Amino acid sequence: MDFTFSSEEDAYRQELQRFATKVLAPHYQSDDKVAKLRSELVTDMAAMGLTGLRIPERHGGQEATAVIAGMAAEEVARGDFNAGYLIIVNALISDILTRNATEQQQAAWLPPIASGEALPAFCITEPEHGTDAAKLETKAEPDGSGGWRLSGEKTSITLGMAAHSALVLARTGGPGARGVSAFYVDLDKRYVSRSAFDDLGSRAIGRASLHFDGLPVSREQLVGAEGEGFVSVMQGFDYSRAIIGLACLGAAAASLDEAVQWARDRETFGSPIGTFQGVAFPLAEYTTYLKGARHVCYEALWRKDNDLEHSSEAAMAKFWAPKLATEAIHQCLLTFGHLGYSSESPVGQRLRDVIGLEIGDGTAQVSKLVIARNLLGRNYAP
Fold first, then answer.
1. CA-CA 20 to 30 A from 54: which of 32, 84, 241, 284?
2. Any idea where the Acyl-CoA dehydrogenase/oxidase C-terminal domain is (predicted)?
3. How far is the first Cα of the chain from the last one, in angstroms, to the nearest whole number?
4. 325: Cβ–Cβ under 8 A, 6 or more apart, which residues?
């Protein structure tokens, strides 16, 4: 059993740490105040190859392993948690397109994603259908010439205000999952309107509702076979949920590093506050918990890379890591006392930001359902 990274992986992690510290971290809080995605962020991420991690080299990407994608999300999120969304969304969409799109489609769609020229969004959730995505109501109605027209609303779309293109699930057939198809489309403003959310956290990523009003879609924009969109898309979520877990743990680790240093520097009653068990023990506990959660996340990604079943491990990562990260960051804020409650500290923003991924991409209840069915068998689980 080998728990070490290779020398190349360690060197890449160090490169990511320098990038996150020097390039990303200085903008983390100011981007939140402006509540808008900086175009420079996309450019900087693309220059590091982070927008094309899971894209094949022949299409301009890095063709990185799932483990490397998770490592990148973890280290980027230490400097700027919201920059991690560019890795999470791009990796998920790229993986789906690589597995399901034709070579011609990949050659047209993947290079702009890898270069940062095209920022994609993932459009599944609807006002009445989040977890139960197989019942979505957005329609792709035949236009009489072999294509379709997309009509309906997608909501809670990450990067929704900034995205140039989107992978959209829409109903082309009858009820249920088999009536759903996937399309990769340009977000033409003549047919797509956007409404931004005023969120508690992660304001820079521009979560939004997108309204499709008869967007023309050709057969060349159909991803995979008609009626197979739901199944092909859902298969991609397993490993992306482990990447989400590592992004949350990266933010928690940054806060923990800051709290540990504060416990050394801050004195009260003539001693550093770290000498008091009430301060030191919670930091020791969360260091332990975070290490355990990292192992779960990386195991899921390792299993993905080795073509092993990983849905249960990915579900563990998704429900545990965001929850644990939220709790750990909260404890770090308390360690700083009144200074941690100030908006000048990044700890409070990390807390607000990480909470969003306790909800997004699948709630804890959904993850536990996946684990329970793997554990007990479908006939003996909820």
1. 32
2. 227-376
3. 34
4. 248, 249, 251, 252, 290, 354
What is the distance, to the nearest Å, from the Cα of residue 340 to the centroid of all Cα atoms in its chain?
26
Question: Do 217 and 148 share a structural domain?
Answer: yes
Residues 254 and 373 in one domain: yes
DSSP sequence for 264-287: HH-EETTEEGGGSHHHHHHHHHHH
Residue-wise pLDDT tens digits, 357-366: 999 888 899 9
Quickly list DSSP for 200-256. SS-GGG--EEEEEEEEEE-GGGEESSTT-HHHHHHTTHHHHHHHHHHHHHHHHHHHH
For residues 273 and 279, give the distance between their C-alpha atoms in angstroms, rounded to a whole number: 7
- pTM of the shown model: 0.96
241 in any annotated domain:
yes
The type of residue at 54 is: R
The tokens describing 291, both together, are: 């290490």
252 and 372 co-located in one domain: yes
Give strand pairing partners of 167: 122, 184
Residues 252 and 303 in one domain: yes
Q: How many domains does the chain have?
A: 3
Same domain assignment for residues 52 and 88: yes
pLDDT in tens, 289-314: 999 999 999 999 999 999 999 999 99
Q: Which domain holds residue 66?
A: 7-118
Cα 17 from Cα 75, distance rounded (Å): 6
Residue 298 shares a structural domain with residue 252: yes
What would the pLDDT profile of 185-235 be if each residue is shown by its tens digit?
999 999 999 999 999 999 999 999 999 999 999 999 999 999 988 888 877
Please determine, for residue 353, whether its predicted confidence score (pLDDT) is greater than 90. Answer: yes
Label residue 36 left, alpha or beta by phi (over 0 means left) and psi (-120 to 50 means alpha).
beta
Identify which of 195, 206, 181 has the alpha carbon closest to the alpha carbon of residue 89: 206
In a domain, 142, yes or no: yes
Q: Where are the beta strands (DSSP E) in the chain?
A: 120-123, 139-142, 148-157, 165-171, 180-186, 192-196, 208-217, 222-223, 267-268, 271-272
The sign of the dihedral angle between the CA atoms of 76, 79, 85, 90 is negative
> Do the Cβ atoms of 328 and 255 come closer than 8 Å?
yes
